[in-house]
Each structure stands twice: as C-alpha cells, then as structure tokens.
Amino acid sequence: MALSIFFFLLLILFSVSSGNAQSYIGVNYGLLADNLPPPSDTAKLLQSTSIQKVRLYGADPTIIKSLAGTGVEIVIGVANGDLPSLASDVNVASQWIDVNVLPFYPASKIILINVGNEILLSNDLNLVNQLLPAMQNVHKALEAVSLGGKIKVSTVHAMTVLGQSEPPSAGLFAPSYQAGLKGILQFLSDTGSSFVINPYPFFAYLSDPRPETLSFCLFQPNPGRVDSNTGIKYMNMFDAQVDAVHSALKSMGFEKVEVVVAETGWPTSGDINEVGPSVENAKAYNGNLIAHLRSMVGTPLMPGKSVDTYTFALFDENLKPGPSFERSFGLFKPDLSMAYDIGLTKTTSSQASQSPPLGKETTSTGWCVPKEDATEEQLQASLDWVCGQGIDCRPIMPGGACFEPNNIASHAAYAMNLNFQKSPENPTDCDFSQTARITSDNPSYNNCVYPRAGEVGEVGDGSIKGVMNKYVTSDKAMDQNCSECSSFLSLPIFIISFSFFFHFHSLRIM
Description:
Blueprint: H1 2-17, E1 25-29, H2 39-47, E2 53-56, H3 61-66, E3 73-78, H4 83-88, H5 90-100, E4 109-117, H6 119-122, H7 125-144, E5 152-158, E6 162-164, E7 172-173, H8 175-191, E8 195-198, H9 201-207, H10 211-217, E9 225-226, E10 233-234, H11 237-251, E11 259-264, H12 279-294, E12 298-299, E13 302-303, E14 309-311, H13 346-353, E15 367-370, H14 376-388, H15 408-420, E16 436-439, H16 490-509
Parallel strand pairs: 1-2, 1-14, 2-3, 3-4, 4-5, 5-8, 8-11, 11-14
Antiparallel strand pairs: 6-7, 9-10, 12-13, 15-16
Helix pairs in contact: 1-16, 5-7, 7-8, 14-15
C-alpha cells in the first residue's frame, strides 16, 4: 500500500515537473517544393526546437519513420481523393491503417488522422456526403487493432465553415453546412476527438487593410474590439476567430468538443499589390502567437488553456499554386537556418522563460512605469493589450500578490513593466504611445515584486526593498509572493513524497 502511494506521489511530481512541456506548439510540414532538406535533417531540426507536434498533409512513410524516437507527435492526413473508397468499405480503411500506421506506431507518435482537408469548402456533394462514413470507417479500423482512442480521427475545416463570426459570442456555422456538421460533431464528441480549424488573421487583414486591423491581427497595441453581447474586449484577431468557432460549436450543442488550430501563419513576401506580407509582420504575428500560447491564458471563452496550434509552415513551398504569398510562409529555410527568430529554439525559449534571479546584476536599465499625466483610458488600453498578448497577468488578478491596490494605474504599471522586461535593453519597449517611462526607483512593495534583473533584492525580514510610488502604494498585508516558486516546485513535492512514504512505512512496521 505504501509503495502504491509512493508511486502515486511520484506520478504527481512527474506531472508537475513536465507541465512546462509545450505540447500545444506544432508546425505544418508541407511537401510542395523541390528544394526541401532530407527528412532526417528536418527531424534533427525539430528536436532542436520547442516544437512538439508536426502535421503532415498525407502519410509520407519516410517522414513518419524519420520522426521515430524523437518524441515529436505526428498528425497524418488522408487525401481527399481516398474518401470514396474509405467510405464504401471498412476493409479499405483497415488496409490504409495497415500501410500508414502500424509499421511506424508507437515508435513514431501518431496522435491524429485527419480524414480529408477542407472538404466542405470543395462544395463537392459526393465528397461531403462520404466524409463522415470515411471518418467512421477509419475509426473502426483503428479500434480493430486496439488503437481506438490512442489515435484520434477528425477532419480539417476552413474558417468559411462559419456563416457568422462577429462578434465572437455570436459565432454560427453556415446554415448550408449545419446538417452535415451535426453528424460529424456527434462523432467527434463520441470519440473524444477535436474540431480542427484553419483560422488566418492574415486573410482577415487582406479584407480590411486598415492600420488598426493590422495591429489587432499581429497581437500589437490596439484599442481592442468589444463583443457587444458579452462586453468582453478582444485584443487580437486569433482569440476572436477561435472563440467564434467555440461559440458555433456551443450553438450546435457541442460546447465540450475541443478546438484545434490546424493552420495559422503569416507570409514573409508577396506581390507588390498584396498588402500585409513581410518578414516584419510574419515575425510579429508568429512570435506574438507563440508568446500568447506559452502564457496559457487561453482565449476569453476558453481561459486557462492554450489551444493546440500548428503554425503554417515549416518551410516555404515553392511549387504551391496561387498568389505568390502562398509560397512564402516558411519559418525555416531549406538550409535549416531560421527565416526569422521567434524564440523556437530550445536554448532561446528556455532562457526567455526564466525569471531573473533576485539580487543579481544584469544589463537591465530599470523599471517601466506609467507617466504621471497618463489618463485612465490610455492606461486601460495598455493594460488590455499587455494581458491580451500573452503576458502572465495573474499577479494583478484577484488574489494575486499585486492585485491591491485595485486600480487601473497600479495594474497597468505592473503589466507595462512585465512587458518591458522581456527586452529591457530596448527603451522603446517602454513607450506605450508616450504614456510610460523608465525609472531607476524600484516600484516593488510589500510582497509584490516588479521583475527586474538588478537592484531588486530581498532584505532580512523577507519584504522587498523598493520605492512605493503613487501607482502602487498599498498598506495591505499580502500573502507571500510566489512568482519565483514554480521552478522549484518539484523539490518540495519530492521531499514531501519521500517523507510521506517513510512515515507511512514506519507506521505499517510498527
């Protein structure tokens, strides 16, 4: 009994210590190019990044095999043209599984099979009618080899499956698709699979190329957009699009079906007449998206959990048809170098996630705080933007160490500084439309620590040295701040586990 409890506690410890694994960050691996590196080299590239999932549009055996033993989770796809045969005969589905799954699983961690890609968008009634039967047969084939539930089955939808997406709370599927979707959604619900969708803020910007729309799409400072039904202010297009899908699922009675983003991205180049494509915009969108996912804030209608998201794409695909931007979504170049840096390398991501140790000198230039003449409206806009783009704002939420005093100026000061400390060597990051300034006076107070890698230190009584300015003064006693505790959480749990084990074991012996 004691041994069972011991291993149960160790399981908890493992779960906590592995909680930082970024299993929600994926990438699309397209093959419409004649200059791609060998799959073996690509597998090594992926292992050097924080990318944990790869989505294939087909089931290329060389790629699937190259990912064996890497720990990278794999999504494979059934070609649209295979749907008729799969739908007509479960034996065909079994043969497909025999060829494309069994030779590789479990060494290659296949987690999902997408049956068809944007079938509803094709308007091919024959394919549309065969979609659900094909999905059902693939699932039956998996069950027949004891893989039902271990490998999920779904299909990928374009955002055009929605007939209404604004405001997000009023999201609805297009009436012409609702009848066909009902059976698919019931299948997803029954099998515990996800609704897979392709939201692209880039295309939203193409249809509305205003500067404020670009900022909204790129997770950059913007006034936000208020959902007239809920009063929720959305600070980026990605959250708005994903929540519109969630609302559409809810309207059909399938609120518990999870949403997975199969594709989203931003091109680095395009034709002269194409607005939006640029390296700067691609870096802003994908970099801010990754930061948003890592924050684990979720979306307003699905808070506290990152949506599994597959960025488009691993490489440029120079043979893709369509506008020139279609061939310019790659995060990496064929020589495996980065097209631009968004913090995906393991070294970069781990360094970025570490909080600066208290009392250690670094090159930080100070703290970022609001200017004295900043208005509440300006501060509220900055607060909404920072917390909306993925910064961890939990300390200024109810119960947080920096919640009191509960006013806009105090909360905005904390959020502005937290955003600034991502790159304190850039003074322009403490601008906020000329409403903020850098100070050498530590604004930390009581147990509310304003992160900064220098001149922030603990004194003997455990309180924080700092200058209490008008934005953050508070005379309330706070619970001990634990913003630095997460990285050490596994140690006390481990000690508790062993203490409990030996104590319990000695009781058994006595």
